[in-house]
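In practice, a research group might receive sequence data for several interacting partners and want a quick structural hypothesis before committing to experiments. The following worked case mirrors that situation: the sequences arrive first, and a predicted assembly follows.
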Amino acid sequence: MPVNLTTPAAGELLPVAGVSLGIAEAGIKRPGRKDLLVMQLDEGARVAGVFTTNRFCAAPVTVAREHLAQGGGIRALVVNTGNANAGTGEQGMRDARATCAALAGLLGCKASQILPFSTGVIMEPLPVDKIAAGLPAAVANMRADNWFDAAHAIMTTDIVAKAMSKQVQIGGKTVTVTGISKGSGMIHPNMATMLGYIATDAAVAQPLLQQMVSEAANRSFNCITVDGDTSTNDALMLIATGKSGAEITDAGSAGYAQLQAVVTEVATHLAQAIVRDGEGATKFITIKIEGGRDEAECKKIGYAIAHSPLVKTAFFASDPNLGRILAAIGYAGVGDLDVAALKLYLDDVLVAENGGRAASYQEEDGQRVMKQSDITIRVVLNRGAVNATLWTCDFSYDYVKINASYRS
Amino acid sequence: MPVNLTTPAAGELLPVAGVSLGIAEAGIKRPGRKDLLVMQLDEGARVAGVFTTNRFCAAPVTVAREHLAQGGGIRALVVNTGNANAGTGEQGMRDARATCAALAGLLGCKASQILPFSTGVIMEPLPVDKIAAGLPAAVANMRADNWFDAAHAIMTTDIVAKAMSKQVQIGGKTVTVTGISKGSGMIHPNMATMLGYIATDAAVAQPLLQQMVSEAANRSFNCITVDGDTSTNDALMLIATGKSGAEITDAGSAGYAQLQAVVTEVATHLAQAIVRDGEGATKFITIKIEGGRDEAECKKIGYAIAHSPLVKTAFFASDPNLGRILAAIGYAGVGDLDVAALKLYLDDVLVAENGGRAASYQEEDGQRVMKQSDITIRVVLNRGAVNATLWTCDFSYDYVKINASYRS
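A structural hypothesis for the assembly, expressed as tokens:
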């Protein structure tokens, strides 16, 4: 079950002026499951995004990148679940374009003004006819206050829908930021997450919007892992409609910093929600690596811990078998690491120093922390001034169960 | 249960003249479990080895390296299970040296002529008093035909003892090669395995012996993974007693090639046995990456597949959800990989080409192969002439069960 995570009430999710959302049941997933989302944007909205670095990236990722690069103004996003349209070759490209064309026909815009997204099983042909048949219902369903249903429509193995709204005053105007995300397995984003959509009614110039989404991704979705599997379909999109009247034109301005902070806060909540709802997760683990020489070595050590099946199963068992963390630190690939110089903490408990178990460490202290559902592993490297924080979850029977049966 | 793996009969394991083995129950593990092995070598034997690259390497690894480097002739190896003496700081170093001193006293040699090895739980103090108390019984038990019991004495979570003997004629002399290994979890060797010991009665000069063990490790233990966790205690040792009369002095000689081939065959069997006995394994998976530009990129892609929890759980389920393999290939980190150029096979079944599912692929063909207990994944990259082969296993409920409870 998700770790300390609930979906916000529908009323807590604030509409973003200039964005309408409609959902439908297109029959890609089993009957009774919503699997199609259309987000229509008013004219003038700007969109920026970051995408997976997986070389087997999905056809919709390629098409979305193309359409963004054309700069012709994006008028809608379309998301299907149940099928990733990845590992589908040329036919997959045709299917992604056909999806855009079908929606463009309904909305009266160009196909190149549509961004397509897919998530689900890989290497199966996209049922594009079902999507085309489902689009009119999604368009008919479009409303500004539909974020709650939208967050549910993009779920796959997710148990809990992920969403958040925040407001901030910028230049005397109230600016709203609302976001949704999905993801639970195949989570080790590299530039983005499975799928995340954040919209604001601030006006943000295109290059600044790209900078803002990249910075937010680097401090949120690029700091999480469930199983170390980087998806073929990762995408995080940031939409700025400009309807609030607040305008951001300078990366050095107070308004930029304010909005960046809120967008990053929403992105971090959505990213952490994916880990809290990680497949089979029973524990949410924060990994802080402090005192490194650079971010790369901090993240290497952090991900070695986060990806170790031995560490993850020990946390599942609430077993303070913490030598497994030392082993992971040791094989992380930091060649000149002085293991005698580092300190390992579990929450406030000093576990290891001087290359071995701390004299003050008591098994019952480790046991106490291991029984919590939220735990922080802190490694102080004592070789520099750089810190990094990652978030992951444990590895349970249910992870195996879910992934030994998931095909939808 | 181990995948198509049984322990050879005691009679199939041939003594190696110049090596005696004795085992004992020192009480490090729970009562009734043998946990101590002494291998005594006749004077003149040469020993070479490769060790873990884990920065948190165990104290016995450091001491064994030191003693080998001194070149004073190795007279015995001592192995305890139940405790890794890793992550134990300065006390661990003192304990490893004390173990050597205790055995040296019994055998009438110098402590620096003993190589110590430990395997088991990390970050717990070595019960050196129990080991010292158990050594006389191990010494009293020493026999040349004791390889079968020795293979059992070094097991931890292993279900099946791992051992192999081969003979080869070199220069008119019969040369014997006998080896044992242990390992089941925390298996992603990087220079060696958990623990492996191979002995021959050929005479091999020291630098050649080091070359031989390094080559054998690179083609065997360095090609396996169970869970991607590189141990703190990996070691593969090659012993050459010279008692057969066959002498190898030149790396370019026919005798060197013959012995290298047999040592590599034994090492490969022992390494594969560790995967077949991988914690919770139900399937043995051979991963062949062909047509790469260099070995590094072949291994990157191979290990990405081998470490993917999603791929491993799909194999556990016998579910041909093979898009997960494409995703792993895509995120392996080969930045300029042309995914449209590669082909993916499951045994003889062509699964994917041209960036997507092969037109000829039928789900029932994939299903048929997935139901086997031995399966080959073959990726033809079509970008060079280099091949690499790795071996791994699937990921089951039992892996989680074993590692959520293992502390001994």
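Before designing any experiment, note the following. Chain B touches chain A through 68 residues (CB under 8 Å). Residues 10-276 of chain B form a domain with the L-amino peptidase D-ALA esterase/amidase fold (CATH 3.60.70.12).
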